[in-house]
Amino acid sequence: MYAYDTVAEAVNGLKLRGYTIDFNIEADKIFCPKTPLALNPADFEITEFYRFEGESDPADEAVVYAIESSKGDRGLLVTGFGITAEGMGEEMIEKLRVKR
Q1: Quick check: helix, strand or coil at residue 24?
Q2: Following DSSP, what letter does each residue of 40-95 receive, concatenated?
């Protein structure tokens, strides 16, 4: 795994390595609003993740996920630490759980 000091460095580094799709999360899937691509938890793997803790501001805390679909699509999902599980399905919650 690579080492990044900031969220911006992680995003830029991953994009340079081919993770070019920007994903958003919605209930039981991730999707790219610019394309028709939508993936259920079974349709993708998290290949890398980077967790950032804000030194003084909890709002600076985030996780950057590098995601690859079963068809080879590669992209990023950036979320806050305490992403709310409200409305998310169990599969998605488990998929995004940061395992150390």
Answers
A1: strand
A2: -GGGEEEEEEEEE--SS-GGG-EEEEEEEETTS-EEEEEEETT---TT--HHHHHH
Q: In what order do the strands lie in the sheet with 29-31?
A: 38-39, 29-31, 21-26, 74-80, 62-69, 44-52
Quick one: DSSP state of residue 14?
H
pTM, rounded to two decimals? 0.84
Tens-digit pLDDT string for the chain (100 aa)? 789 999 999 999 999 999 999 999 888 899 999 988 999 999 999 999 998 886 655 556 788 999 999 999 999 999 876 555 455 677 877 787 766 5
